[in-house]
Design goal:
heterodimer; A: 180 residues; alpha/beta; seven-stranded mixed sheet; B: 299 residues
């Protein structure tokens, strides 16, 4: 009987990060723990030379390029790493691909930093949520939910993954966000 | 960066068999599958060391999710001990170091061919269904491109017609396994050939279900708390198989999905399809909360 192959250093981190992302998307609004903090571990679990990425931060952009992904403008990217606090980030978010009725999978995945438990609370409803859930995220532009609603015309839309240190929350396109 | 940091100690194959790039592709597609429940997402479907059609889709999903701390259960038509289930289970544990179990309650990853366990799945469990034919429209539209367009248009008229024709011809819906179901009110999926008995278990469930077709290179998902509505006419209610009154001749269990065992004298005996549920009953071990009680699906 052979023993199981040893995981390399990246494998447990990528595996646990993806488990957090998948659980967060399957249960929108719930907080999940990743082994390492920041946007980069999420990127490393998902992105490689088959991807086109955009990041508004030069350091992250460099790290993404080293994964083999092509760094492209936001309207061509399948993964976007944005700080959604500014007017210019809103403009970039608006350009994110949303897929098509034929290929909804071509909608982008947007990864953004946020401060959890801060900022105005929004109500969430949709698949993965038993009744309704609430979510409050700080460091986001006031228009972010309006822009997201404009992009997410189900089954078209974007997936949003918010990261606060090692904690992570995700909103798939199927989630309806109600403000106020 | 130096050559040393890029070089890894030699191993016959990667952890979990799939290489890092294959796993990332699976992850990206699983994310999209969960985001658009019931919508078939194309994926590359790498080679795994079993023939396509024997659970390669399920294996790739399980191999992507598995970690040394995972507990894996593999089911084939309800049984843990068929050749296909045993081989897949042995392969999974060998390449991942994960522990194998036969007990539904213990497992964290449950890969299944054509059955959903009778014991209720929890939020911390993932069900991975092996799918031979992911396209519910194949019977009415063999052209994949046109079928994709029909999904885009939510054009499911011909599926309704199929069900209508069955009722006209036979007086009832004849569709047994793979009963078409509307997911999240938008995409019709085939739930893989699980019996009608099992389809209500996916509706508003606690667990995540991933359905993966390796040969056909399509993956789709049903997240927890998602509506899965079988296609039914208002005046012809959904009916599961008439197994509510059947008793297993080995374990004495009543009110679960049964396998029919033909006897030499022309009669038939029944034995419970979820093999480990039967084993638990024989051992008088504790059986978890079940979906069906007294042969009735519980909300």
């Amino acid at each position: 009987m052979q023993t199981a192959p040893m995981p390399d250093a990246d494998e447990p981190r990528d595996n646990a990060t993806f488990a957090a992302v998948l659980n967060a998307l399957a249960r929108p609004g719930t907080v999940h723990e990743m082994p390492e903090p920041g946007l980069l571990p999420v990127a490393l679990a998902l992105v490689d030379r088959e991807c086109r990425v955009f990041a508004d931060e030069a350091a992250l952009s460099g790290a993404l390029a080293r994964s083999g992904a092509s760094v492209v403008p936001p309207d061509l990217a399948d993964h976007l790493f944005l700080s959604l606090g500014t007017e210019s980030a809103m403009a970039q978010l608006l350009r994110a691909p949303v897929g098509s009725q034929l290929y909804p999978d071509q909608g982008a995945t947007v990864v953004a930093p946020a401060r959890f438990g801060d900022g105005p609370a929004v109500r969430l409803a949709g698949p993965g949520i038993r009744d309704t859930a609430t979510l409050s995220l700080g460091e986001l532009h006031a228009d972010v939910w309006r822009v997201r609603a404009g992009l997410c015309r189900y089954p078209l839309g974007i997936e949003m993954i918010f990261v606060d240190g090692t904690r992570l929350v995700a909103l798939p396109r199927s989630t309806t966000v109600t403000e106020g | 960066m130096s050559l040393a940091t890029l070089t890894r100690p030699w191993q016959a194959f990667s952890y979990g068999f799939l290489d890092a790039s294959a796993k990332r592709e699976m992850r990206r597609k699983m994310i999209k599958a969960v985001a658009v429940p019931g919508c078939q997402m194309p994926y590359a479907s790498r080679e795994v060391p079993i023939a396509r059609g024997w659970g390669t889709g399920g294996l790739q999903a399980t191999l992507t999710l598995v970690s040394p701390g995972a507990v894996v259960k593999v089911i084939d038509q309800g049984a843990d001990d068929s050749v296909n289930a045993a081989s897949n289970r042995r392969f999974l544990t060998r390449v991942s170091g994960a522990r194998a179990t036969l007990d539904t309650l213990e497992a964290t990853l449950i890969q299944s061919r054509h059955r959903v366990p009778e014991e209720r799945l929890r939020a911390d469990q993932v069900l991975i269904l092996q799918v031979p034919n992911p396209e519910p429209l194949r019977g009415v539209e063999p052209n994949m491109s046109r079928a994709r367009q029909m999904h885009a248009d939510a054009d499911y008229g011909r599926l309704w017609l199929t069900l209508y024709e069955q009722i006209v011809r036979s007086g009832r819906v004849m569709q047994g396994a793979s009963y078409p179901a509307m997911v999240n009110g938008r995409h019709v999926m085939t739930p893989s050939p699980i019996p009608r008995w099992d389809l209500p278990k996916l509706n508003m469930a606690e667990h995540l279900t991933i359905l993966s077709a390796g040969r056909e290179k399509r993956i789709f998902a049903v997240p927890p708390h998602t509506r899965v509505d079988p296609l039914v006419f208002d005046d012809v209610p959904y009916r599961v198989e008439d197994h509510a009154q059947l008793t297993c001749h080995r374990s004495g269990l009543t009110g679960f999905f049964m396998n029919e065992i033909p006897q030499d004298d022309g009669t038939a005996r029944h034995e419970v399809s979820d093999s480990h549920l039967g084993v638990k009953a024989i051992d008088a071990a504790e059986i978890g909360e079940t979906w069906y009680k007294g042969g009735e699906m519980q909300p």
